[in-house]
Amino acid sequence: MSHEIVSATQSKMQKAVDHTLHEFDNIHTGKATPAMVENIQVEAYGSSMRVKDCAAISTPDSRMIVIQPWDKGVIQAVAKGIQVANIGLNPSIDGGLVRVPLPEMSRERREEFVKVAHRHAEEGKVGVRKARHDGLDQIKKAGLPEDEAKRLEKEIQKVTDQATGEIDQHLAAKEKDLLEVN
């Protein structure tokens, strides 16, 4: 019974950490990554779909994203979708490809992204703390012997510290990545 509470709490914390890491991946660091455009919605075949569902995305170098739609008929829709997404990228159509050059990032822009990363990290930590609070509430409601309850509370605190430590570690790496000029 008691171990289930810790496992469930740890699972909730891991989801908060994973979500935070996903948010970090979406922050533009000046290096091209497919994650920057793969979830952008495009109007194709009479419905809305993600870029990664209708095209191959590659990064031939650190300043360029190349998108190759599987159907040449959606090439305009892909370019338009990237422009409409308003993420500071300006795609150009080159034959059967959409080329998306990444602009140089100014020092101010880099610092702005660092602030965004810190905000995402804090939101992740809030998620971890909420999971911790829920876990501690479950322990209290379980009516366990006092020594068992204390042991579980310590275990939950340990996994909380691990989760926040993981977020801090990834934040530091992201911050270094953002402030590093290529």
Q: How many structural domains does the protein architecture include?
A: 2
Q: Indicate the structural class.
A: alpha+beta
**Extended strand count:** 6
Rounded to the nearest angstrom, the distance between the terminal CA atoms is: 52 Å
| Tally of DSSP helical segments | 5
Determine the CATH topology of the largest domain: Topoisomerase I, Chain A, domain 4
The major β-sheet equals: 4 strands, antiparallel
CATH class of the largest domain: Mainly Alpha
Low-confidence stretches: none
Specify the helix fraction band: 55-70%
- Return the average pLDDT rounded to an integer: 87
Structure description:
This protein is an alpha+beta fold and about 180 residues long. It has two domains: about 1-25 and about 105-180, Topoisomerase I, Chain A, domain 4, CATH 1.10.132.20; about 35-100, 2-Layer Sandwich (Gyrase A, domain 2), CATH 3.30.1360. It is about 60% helix and about 15% strand. It is built from five helices and six strands. The strands form two sheets. The chain has a four-stranded antiparallel sheet with strand order 3-4-6-5. Strand 3 and strand 4 form a beta hairpin. The radius of gyration is 22 Å and the shape is elongated. The N and C termini lie far apart (about 50 Å). The mean pLDDT is about 85.
Which features does this protein show?
Topoisomerase I, Chain A, domain 4, 2 domains, Gyrase A, domain 2, alpha+beta, 182 residues, 4-stranded antiparallel β-sheet, 5 helices
